[in-house]
Design goal:
15 helices, Nitrilase/N-carbamoyl-D-aminoacid amidohydrolase, 43% helix, 2 domains, globular, 508 residues, 12 strands, 6-stranded mixed sheet, alpha/beta
């Protein structure tokens, strides 16, 4: 009995330590960006589980690690359910704990797969990096996908390393990041010292590639295009109140009319900037037309009707309004947010009272929007920007990425910082500038190297006036997308089994 009690105590001790290590890993991500935290977390996880041979036990340790990581990295999602007073507060435990508990299954499967292989030493570390990244890839694709907080995003403030995403994308950079961070766990095994040296050399090579790429970077801009981004920072609690709707519109119009050194040709407002069905409100169209630049347009996020009748299907989209009050460009969001814009499995969940989630319908997919006086833009509403390789229409490629978002739902939290970092990675992958208008921040203009040209911070009120950076030729990633990552992962799988080795003394 005592032995069983001691065994349970050791198991729970490992699980709680795995939980702590998962939380430590979050420190490597924006807004903190303490990169060595990944070394502590991933090497610690492999050392913690090195004597575990049962797949079920490895699964449990991996789950606790993932739960700690995602609970601390995604806590801010719960803030959205406090906006409507007490109406949805009952959903907070599901958002703060339920979602991390579910997606931690991917981490659990990664460690279980490593245990199943029975690899040791460097081979085990490589297998873990491949398994972890493979599960991250699945997390980004299954059940509508949610590839938030990939390990690659730790590099957004290291522009030299960030350039690697132009070749191998976010998943490839995640694979290399996890591998480098976990290699110290192989210490004491054959090939460990050489592998760590190779890992350091690979990071140095990546930095050198990025330095070379940035050395050839230019500050070229698109002639004749001058942008103005408007960040009104209207509190989410007020925006949809009936007595505040006019005030919200007036605030955006007032900021739009702020004198500029160089007159803008495109005005960009954020996601659902004004609480109207813009196309169905002639007075709103007229008011916006008076502020539209000559020969250009005001682009705003808005709720749109997708049909006649009452009720009509609605979408979350954007429209471009010219100086005559005409809609001269439009886009409907294709990738909707579960429990935010629609209710998954709604026929089965109709019995649940006050379940969060609007009844929106998706648009047809990534699309290039033609705008007056500007190159075609790849439109992205809110979190559509988080999906690597899925942000543009490959058959009709744009020249820049336009991301309208509303992070006001999440308050002063890590969420908006993470979202902005993720968006910057898309610019590097595609070799295109990214223009991001956010309701309360972070708004910014990002060049095709992921560098922030201008930005407005969280909760700032103001405008950004900037030229539109010119796009680069298609990057290797833009041409091959995830095929490069798949080849890299396959090579690493072969290496893992070739470098499998028995543990040796630390002196070897």
């Amino acid at each position: 009995m005592r032995r069983d009690s001691e065994g349970r105590g050791r198991r729970w001790g490992r699980r709680l330590l795995a939980l702590l290590l998962g939380a430590v890993a979050t420190l490597a991500l924006p807004p903190i960006g303490f990169i060595p935290a990944f070394i502590i977390a991933f090497s610690g996880l492999l050392l913690l589980s090195r004597d575990v041979r049962r797949v079920r036990q490895a699964f449990a340790i991996g789950w606790w690690f993932g739960f700690g990581h995602f609970a601390t990295g995604l806590y801010w999602i719960a803030n959205a359910f406090t906006i409507d007073g007490d109406r949805f507060v009952w959903f907070i435990p599901f958002a703060a704990l339920g979602l991390p508990a579910v997606i931690a299954i991917y981490s659990a499967l990664a460690l279980a797969a490593v245990a199943f292989t029975r690899l040791e030493g460097v081979g085990r570390v490589i297998a873990f990096a491949v398994a972890w990244t493979g599960m991250e890839w699945l997390r980004g694709h299954l059940f509508t996908g949610f590839p938030w907080n990939l390990a690659a995003y730790t590099w957004v403030e290291v522009p030299e390393i960030l350039q690697s995403a132009s070749v191998i994308g976010a998943f490839g950079l995640t694979l290399l990041t996890v591998l480098a961070a976990a290699l110290p766990a192989a210490w004491g095994h054959r090939y460990a010292r050489r592998s760590i040296a190779v890992g350091v050399a690979a990071l140095a090579l990546g930095w050198g590639f990025g330095h070379w790429r940035l050395a050839g970077a230019t500050e070229a801009v698109v002639d004749g295009v001058r942008l103005r981004l408007v960040q009104a920072s209207v509190p989410q609690q007020l925006k949809w109140q009936l007595d505040q709707r006019i005030a919200t519109l007036v605030k955006h119009l007032t900021l739009t009319r702020t004198p500029a050194v160089v007159a803008p040709t495109l005005i960009i407002w954020p996601e659902t900037a004004v609480p109207f069905l813009v196309e169905a409100e002639p007075e709103v169209l007229t008011a916006m037309a008076t502020a539209a630049p000559a020969g250009g347009a005001i682009i705003t996020g808005t709720i749109r009707l997708r049909g006649a009748g009452d009720p009509s299907p609605i979408t979350n989209g954007l429209v471009a309004i010219d100086g005559n009050g005409r809609v001269v460009g439009a886009y409907d969001k294709a990738h909707l947010v579960p429990f935010g814009e629609y209710t998954p499995l709604s026929p089965l969940l109709d019995w649940v009272p006050a379940l969060p989630g609007a009844s929106m319908v998706p648009g047809p997919g990534p699309a290039s929007v033609r705008l007056p006086g500007a190159p075609a833009a790849g439109a992205l509403i809110c979190y559509e920007v988080i999906f690597p390789g899925k942000v543009i229409d490959r058959d009709d490629p744009p020249q820049w990425l336009l991301n309208l978002t509303n992070d006001a739902w999440y308050g002063r939290s890590a969420g908006p910082y993470q979202h902005f970092a993720i968006a910057r990675m898309r610019a590097v992958e595609e070799g295109m500038p990214l223009v991001r208008a956010a309701q309360n921040g972070i708004s910014g203009v990002v060049d095709p190297y992921g560098r922030v040209v201008k930005s407005l911070g969280l909760d700032e009120v103001g405008v950004i006036d900037a030229d539109l950076p010119a796009a680069l030729p298609p990057t290797p990633y833009a041409r091959g997308r995830e095929a490069i990552f798949a080849v890299l992962a396959l090579i690493f799988v072969i290496l893992a089994f070739r470098l499998d080795s028995p543990r040796r003394s630390p002196g070897n």
